[in-house]
Protein backbone atom coordinates (compact mmCIF):
# COMPACT_ATOMS: atom_id res chain seq x y z
CA UNK A 1 0.00 0.00 0.00
CA UNK A 2 1.27 3.45 -0.88
CA UNK A 3 1.02 6.19 1.76
CA UNK A 4 -1.54 8.93 1.28
CA UNK A 5 0.03 11.18 3.92
CA UNK A 6 -0.36 8.53 6.58
CA UNK A 7 0.75 9.54 10.06
CA UNK A 8 3.05 7.77 12.49
CA UNK A 9 3.37 8.62 16.15
CA UNK A 10 6.03 7.22 18.47
CA UNK A 11 6.04 7.43 22.27
CA UNK A 12 9.30 6.14 23.69
CA UNK A 13 10.44 5.86 27.28
CA UNK A 14 12.58 3.84 29.64
CA UNK A 15 10.07 1.02 29.98
CA UNK A 16 9.31 0.65 26.26
CA UNK A 17 7.97 2.38 23.18
CA UNK A 18 4.60 2.45 21.46
CA UNK A 19 3.95 3.22 17.82
CA UNK A 20 0.70 3.96 16.01
CA UNK A 21 0.01 4.43 12.31
CA UNK A 22 -3.05 6.48 11.43
CA UNK A 23 -4.88 7.02 8.17
CA UNK A 24 -5.24 10.59 6.85
CA UNK A 25 -8.67 10.81 8.51
CA UNK A 26 -7.17 9.94 11.92
CA UNK A 27 -8.34 6.33 12.00
CA UNK A 28 -5.77 4.06 13.68
CA UNK A 29 -4.62 1.46 11.18
CA UNK A 30 -1.97 -0.39 13.18
CA UNK A 31 -0.16 -0.28 16.52
CA UNK A 32 2.94 -1.96 17.92
CA UNK A 33 5.09 -1.94 21.03
CA UNK A 34 8.82 -2.24 21.40
CA UNK A 35 11.66 -2.25 23.88
CA UNK A 36 13.01 0.69 25.93
CA UNK A 37 13.58 3.91 24.00
CA UNK A 38 15.34 6.35 26.32
CA UNK A 39 17.88 8.13 24.15
CA UNK A 40 20.08 9.31 27.02
CA UNK A 41 20.31 5.90 28.64
CA UNK A 42 20.91 3.92 25.43
CA UNK A 43 20.92 5.90 22.16
CA UNK A 44 21.54 2.93 19.88
CA UNK A 45 19.01 0.77 21.67
CA UNK A 46 16.39 3.52 21.62
CA UNK A 47 16.76 3.96 17.86
CA UNK A 48 16.78 0.21 17.19
CA UNK A 49 13.69 -0.45 19.32
CA UNK A 50 11.74 2.44 17.83
CA UNK A 51 12.67 1.35 14.30
CA UNK A 52 11.60 -2.22 14.98
CA UNK A 53 8.18 -1.12 16.21
CA UNK A 54 7.82 1.27 13.25
CA UNK A 55 8.59 -1.56 10.86
CA UNK A 56 5.97 -3.69 12.63
CA UNK A 57 3.17 -1.17 12.08
CA UNK A 58 4.25 -0.66 8.49
CA UNK A 59 4.09 -4.38 7.84
CA UNK A 60 0.71 -4.68 9.58
CA UNK A 61 -0.66 -1.86 7.41
CA UNK A 62 0.83 -3.27 4.23
CA UNK A 63 3.13 -0.31 3.61
CA UNK A 64 6.07 -0.89 1.33
CA UNK A 65 9.40 0.93 1.80
CA UNK A 66 8.29 3.82 -0.41
CA UNK A 67 5.01 4.13 1.46
CA UNK A 68 6.74 4.17 4.83
CA UNK A 69 9.16 6.83 3.63
CA UNK A 70 6.23 9.05 2.61
CA UNK A 71 4.55 8.88 6.05
CA UNK A 72 4.65 11.96 8.24
CA UNK A 73 5.97 11.12 11.69
CA UNK A 74 6.56 12.58 15.11
CA UNK A 75 8.84 10.73 17.50
CA UNK A 76 8.77 11.68 21.18
CA UNK A 77 11.60 9.86 22.94
CA UNK A 78 12.65 10.26 26.55
CA UNK A 79 16.19 11.54 26.87
CA UNK A 80 16.28 13.63 23.69
CA UNK A 81 18.05 16.70 25.07
CA UNK A 82 19.06 18.95 22.19
CA UNK A 83 19.15 19.42 18.43
CA UNK A 84 22.09 17.07 18.06
CA UNK A 85 20.03 14.29 19.65
CA UNK A 86 17.08 15.14 17.41
CA UNK A 87 19.27 14.94 14.30
CA UNK A 88 20.76 11.62 15.39
CA UNK A 89 17.30 10.10 15.73
CA UNK A 90 15.97 11.65 12.52
CA UNK A 91 18.98 10.49 10.49
CA UNK A 92 18.28 6.89 11.49
CA UNK A 93 14.63 6.97 10.47
CA UNK A 94 13.13 6.16 7.06
CA UNK A 95 10.86 9.22 6.82
CA UNK A 96 11.31 12.17 4.48
CA UNK A 97 9.10 14.35 6.66
CA UNK A 98 9.29 14.05 10.42
CA UNK A 99 9.94 15.78 13.73
CA UNK A 100 11.69 14.56 16.87
CA UNK A 101 11.20 15.78 20.44
CA UNK A 102 11.55 14.51 23.96
CA UNK A 103 8.57 12.76 25.52
CA UNK A 104 7.44 15.87 27.39
CA UNK A 105 6.14 17.49 24.20
CA UNK A 106 4.05 14.46 23.29
CA UNK A 107 2.69 14.14 26.82
CA UNK A 108 1.57 17.78 26.81
CA UNK A 109 -0.02 17.49 23.37
CA UNK A 110 -1.83 14.32 24.39
CA UNK A 111 -3.04 15.48 27.80
CA UNK A 112 -3.85 19.16 27.21
CA UNK A 113 -4.42 19.42 23.48
CA UNK A 114 -4.79 23.15 22.76
CA UNK A 115 -6.11 24.00 26.22
CA UNK A 116 -4.36 26.46 28.52
CA UNK A 117 -3.32 24.58 31.61
CA UNK A 118 -0.73 22.63 33.53
CA UNK A 119 0.23 19.00 33.26
CA UNK A 120 1.58 17.33 36.39
CA UNK A 121 2.77 13.97 35.11
CA UNK A 122 4.11 11.98 38.01
CA UNK A 123 5.25 8.40 37.65
CA UNK A 124 8.74 7.13 38.34
CA UNK A 125 9.87 10.66 37.45
CA UNK A 126 8.24 14.08 37.22
CA UNK A 127 7.17 16.14 34.22
CA UNK A 128 5.63 19.55 34.85
CA UNK A 129 4.51 21.60 31.88
CA UNK A 130 2.48 24.79 31.66
CA UNK A 131 0.80 25.67 28.38
CA UNK A 132 -0.63 29.10 27.64
CA UNK A 133 -1.67 30.34 24.19
CA UNK A 134 0.31 27.57 22.54
CA UNK A 135 3.55 28.29 24.39
CA UNK A 136 4.87 25.63 26.76
CA UNK A 137 7.09 26.16 29.79
CA UNK A 138 8.69 23.18 31.52
CA UNK A 139 9.78 23.00 35.15
CA UNK A 140 12.21 20.45 36.51
CA UNK A 141 13.22 17.63 34.23
CA UNK A 142 16.78 17.60 35.55
CA UNK A 143 16.82 13.87 36.26
CA UNK A 144 16.40 11.76 39.38
CA UNK A 145 19.51 13.02 41.14
CA UNK A 146 18.81 16.74 40.81
CA UNK A 147 15.03 16.84 40.43
CA UNK A 148 11.95 14.58 40.04
CA UNK A 149 10.48 15.96 43.25
CA UNK A 150 7.10 14.47 44.23
CA UNK A 151 7.58 11.54 41.82
CA UNK A 152 7.25 7.90 42.73
CA UNK A 153 11.01 7.53 42.73
CA UNK A 154 11.40 10.54 45.01
CA UNK A 155 8.69 9.33 47.40
CA UNK A 156 10.31 5.92 47.65
CA UNK A 157 13.76 7.32 48.31
CA UNK A 158 12.39 9.71 50.96
CA UNK A 159 10.46 6.85 52.57
CA UNK A 160 13.70 4.92 53.03
CA UNK A 161 15.45 8.02 54.39
CA UNK A 162 12.69 8.44 56.96
CA UNK A 163 12.93 4.76 57.87
CA UNK A 164 16.67 5.17 58.49
CA UNK A 165 16.10 8.24 60.65
CA UNK A 166 13.64 6.16 62.64
CA UNK A 167 16.34 3.53 63.11
CA UNK A 168 18.57 6.27 64.54
CA UNK A 169 15.86 7.32 66.97
CA UNK A 170 15.43 10.72 65.33
CA UNK A 171 11.83 10.07 64.33
CA UNK A 172 9.08 8.02 65.96
CA UNK A 173 8.43 4.52 64.68
CA UNK A 174 4.98 4.51 63.08
CA UNK A 175 2.97 2.08 61.00
CA UNK A 176 4.45 3.70 57.92
CA UNK A 177 8.09 3.12 58.82
CA UNK A 178 7.26 -0.35 60.13
CA UNK A 179 5.66 -1.20 56.77
CA UNK A 180 8.67 0.12 54.85
CA UNK A 181 11.11 -1.81 57.02
CA UNK A 182 8.95 -4.90 56.69
CA UNK A 183 9.99 -5.10 53.05
CA UNK A 184 13.54 -5.66 54.32
CA UNK A 185 12.64 -7.92 57.25
CA UNK A 186 13.51 -5.07 59.58
CA UNK A 187 17.18 -5.09 58.60
CA UNK A 188 18.64 -1.60 58.03
CA UNK A 189 21.73 -3.07 56.35
CA UNK A 190 19.44 -4.61 53.74
CA UNK A 191 17.98 -1.15 53.12
CA UNK A 192 21.47 0.31 52.61
CA UNK A 193 22.43 -2.43 50.17
CA UNK A 194 19.21 -1.99 48.23
CA UNK A 195 19.58 1.80 48.02
CA UNK A 196 23.19 1.58 46.87
CA UNK A 197 22.20 0.17 43.47
CA UNK A 198 18.45 0.78 43.17
CA UNK A 199 17.12 2.48 40.07
CA UNK A 200 14.35 5.13 40.25
CA UNK A 201 11.68 2.60 39.25
CA UNK A 202 12.75 0.37 42.17
CA UNK A 203 12.43 3.26 44.62
CA UNK A 204 9.08 4.09 43.03
CA UNK A 205 7.73 0.69 44.11
CA UNK A 206 7.38 2.18 47.61
CA UNK A 207 5.20 5.11 46.50
CA UNK A 208 1.92 3.18 46.96
CA UNK A 209 2.99 2.40 50.53
CA UNK A 210 3.28 6.13 51.23
CA UNK A 211 -0.20 6.92 49.92
CA UNK A 212 -1.81 3.87 51.51
CA UNK A 213 -0.35 4.68 54.92
CA UNK A 214 -1.30 8.35 54.59
CA UNK A 215 -4.84 7.30 53.72
CA UNK A 216 -4.91 5.23 56.90
CA UNK A 217 -3.97 8.32 58.90
CA UNK A 218 -0.24 7.84 59.44
CA UNK A 219 1.21 11.27 60.23
CA UNK A 220 4.69 10.56 58.87
CA UNK A 221 3.31 9.37 55.55
CA UNK A 222 1.02 12.39 55.34
CA UNK A 223 3.94 14.71 56.10
CA UNK A 224 5.93 13.15 53.26
CA UNK A 225 3.05 13.65 50.84
CA UNK A 226 2.80 17.26 52.00
CA UNK A 227 6.46 17.70 51.01
CA UNK A 228 5.53 16.62 47.51
CA UNK A 229 2.43 18.82 47.49
CA UNK A 230 4.47 21.85 48.56
CA UNK A 231 6.73 21.39 45.53
CA UNK A 232 3.84 20.88 43.11
CA UNK A 233 1.95 23.92 44.38
CA UNK A 234 5.12 26.03 44.24
CA UNK A 235 5.40 25.06 40.57
CA UNK A 236 1.74 25.98 39.97
CA UNK A 237 2.32 29.36 41.58
CA UNK A 238 5.51 29.89 39.56
CA UNK A 239 3.59 29.52 36.27
CA UNK A 240 0.79 31.79 37.56
CA UNK A 241 -1.88 29.12 37.50
CA UNK A 242 -5.33 30.71 37.67
CA UNK A 243 -9.01 30.09 36.96
CA UNK A 244 -8.43 30.21 33.19
CA UNK A 245 -6.24 27.09 33.38
CA UNK A 246 -7.08 23.43 33.62
CA UNK A 247 -5.02 21.04 35.73
CA UNK A 248 -4.26 17.55 34.51
CA UNK A 249 -2.80 14.96 36.89
CA UNK A 250 -1.27 12.06 34.99
CA UNK A 251 0.97 9.06 35.51
CA UNK A 252 0.74 6.33 38.10
CA UNK A 253 1.34 8.74 41.00
CA UNK A 254 -0.11 12.06 39.82
CA UNK A 255 -3.84 11.42 40.47
CA UNK A 256 -3.10 10.25 44.01
CA UNK A 257 -2.04 13.78 44.96
CA UNK A 258 -5.48 15.20 44.09
CA UNK A 259 -7.03 14.98 47.60
CA UNK A 260 -4.07 16.81 49.11
CA UNK A 261 -4.03 19.86 46.82
CA UNK A 262 -5.50 23.20 47.83
CA UNK A 263 -9.17 23.64 46.96
CA UNK A 264 -8.45 26.26 44.28
CA UNK A 265 -6.32 23.72 42.41
CA UNK A 266 -8.65 20.76 42.92
CA UNK A 267 -11.49 22.75 41.38
CA UNK A 268 -9.60 22.96 38.08
CA UNK A 269 -8.68 19.26 37.72
CA UNK A 270 -9.74 17.66 34.43
CA UNK A 271 -9.06 14.34 32.76
CA UNK A 272 -6.31 14.04 30.18
CA UNK A 273 -7.61 14.27 26.62
CA UNK A 274 -5.33 11.42 25.57
CA UNK A 275 -2.02 9.67 25.97
CA UNK A 276 1.49 10.60 24.89
CA UNK A 277 0.99 8.38 21.84
CA UNK A 278 -2.13 10.38 20.98
CA UNK A 279 0.02 13.48 21.40
CA UNK A 280 2.64 12.15 19.00
CA UNK A 281 -0.03 11.55 16.36
CA UNK A 282 -1.49 15.00 17.00
CA UNK A 283 1.91 16.62 16.46
CA UNK A 284 2.42 14.58 13.28
CA UNK A 285 -0.96 15.83 12.07
CA UNK A 286 0.02 19.44 12.80
CA UNK A 287 3.24 18.93 10.86
CA UNK A 288 1.26 17.62 7.89
CA UNK A 289 -1.24 20.47 8.06
CA UNK A 290 1.49 23.10 8.34
CA UNK A 291 2.92 21.90 5.05
CA UNK A 292 -0.40 21.70 3.26
CA UNK A 293 -0.40 17.90 3.22
From TrEMBL:
InterPro entries: ATPase_BadF, ATPase_NBD, Euk-type_GlcNAc_Kinase. Residues 8-254 form the ATPase BadF/BadG/BcrA/BcrD type domain. It comes from the Bacteria. Keywords: Kinase, Transferase. GO terms for molecular function: kinase activity. This is Glucosamine kinase. It comes from Marivita hallyeonensis.
Amino acid sequence: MRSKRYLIGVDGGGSGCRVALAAPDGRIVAQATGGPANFTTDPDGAIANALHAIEEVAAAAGLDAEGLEACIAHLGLAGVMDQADERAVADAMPFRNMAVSDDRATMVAGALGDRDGVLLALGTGTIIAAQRRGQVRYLGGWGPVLADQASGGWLGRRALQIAMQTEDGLLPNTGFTATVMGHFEGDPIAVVKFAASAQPKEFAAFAPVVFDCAGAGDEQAKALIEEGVAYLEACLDAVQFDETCVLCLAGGVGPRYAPYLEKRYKARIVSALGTALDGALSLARKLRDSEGG
